[in-house]
Design goal:
By secondary structure, this protein is of the alpha+beta class. The chain folds into 2 domains: about 150 residues, no CATH class; about 80 residues, 2-Layer Sandwich (Beta-lactamase Inhibitory Protein, Chain:B, domain 1). The strands form 3 sheets. It has a 6-stranded mixed sheet with strand order 3-7-6-5-1-8. Strands 9-10-11-12-13 form a 5-stranded antiparallel sheet. Strand 9 and strand 10 form a beta hairpin. Helix 6 runs parallel beside helix 7. The longest helix is centred in the first third of the chain and has 12 residues.
């Protein structure tokens, strides 16, 4: 009886974690849903050798960011498009590599400016981050939590980043469309996905998918982007090596039953 009471008292006094640990399945889902997402910079984001920390309320240390900016220059200026290229789980930190990190080269979206939304101040604490002359590149951001990384959806983590990076806008689309072949441009403007498109074109045509599912069969890895939820029309866009190899339209009834819809003739 005494042993039982001691164990009970010790158990009652032991600290309880405020958040449950992410499971391997949850981490895999976040990897799939966050990787390759595009957003536009709402502040000047510095390049940095070590991850730039962001608190769960979206705030950051302007002194730390200012020092990184003076040393390495910007990874993205106000309105520049960026892409999450790697996701990592480091204890209480969710690390997001942007544009392939500090060694990443400039891409087409770095050269395109977009309008709207950005605060001229661009940071917390009233300190202005000076504009540097370095060409935009990449960096790594770390959302830092008090305890474990919480169980949140990809959308909820992206919402935390909104003061720094806005992932809600389909920015730079008009200028990007001008670089495409007329057939692909017309399809994107009509909200249509076709075989031969890449992920960028698909995002412009239909936005972010409701789900992403990867499959590995016979040595070949494919990824399905799924648009729509039952009951209603659902579109499966299948990628292989970053290119659309198939588009399937279906209809899901109540209870998840799916009936096939013949593709529209073009």
């Amino acid at each position: 009886m005494r042993v039982f009471l001691i164990v009970a008292i010790v158990g009652a006094l032991a600290p309880v974690s405020a958040t449950a640990k992410l499971t391997d399945e949850q981490k895999l889902t976040l990897l799939r849903d966050l990787t390759s997402e595009y957003g536009s910079a709402q502040v000047i984001v510095p390049r940095s050798k070590k991850p730039l920390e962001i608190r769960p309320d979206g705030a950051f240390d302007p002194q730390e960011w200012g020092e990184a900016l003076r040393e390495f220059g910007p990874a993205a200026r106000l309105g520049d498009m960026v892409q999450i290229t790697k996701v990592d789980f480091k204890g209480k930190k969710l690390e997001l590599e942007i544009n392939h990190g500090i060694k990443g080269g400039a891409k087409w979206w770095h050269r395109i400016q977009v309008s709207g939304g950005a605060n001229a101040g661009g940071n917390r604490g009233g300190q202005t981050l000076g504009q540097a002359s370095n060409a935009p590149g990449g960096t790594t951001l770390a959302i830092v939590f008090e305890d474990e990384i919480p169980d949140k959806t990809a959308e909820e983590f992206l919402a935390i980043l909104k003061p720094v990076l806005n992932f809600d806008e389909r920015s730079a689309s008009e200028l990007y469309l001008e670089q495409l072949e007329p057939e692909m441009r017309e399809a994107i403007e009509a909200g249509e996905v076709r075989e031969g498109m890449d992920r960028d074109m698909t995002l412009l045509a239909k936005g972010r998918p409701d789900r992403k599912v990867r499959d590995f069969k016979d040595g070949v890895e494919t990824e399905d982007w799924i648009y729509g939820k039952p009951p209603g029309d659902i579109v499966f866009v299948t990628f292989e090596n970053g290119e659309v190899i198939g588009v399937k339209h279906t209809h899901a009834n109540l209870g998840g039953q799916v009936r096939k819809i013949e593709p529209v003739k073009r």
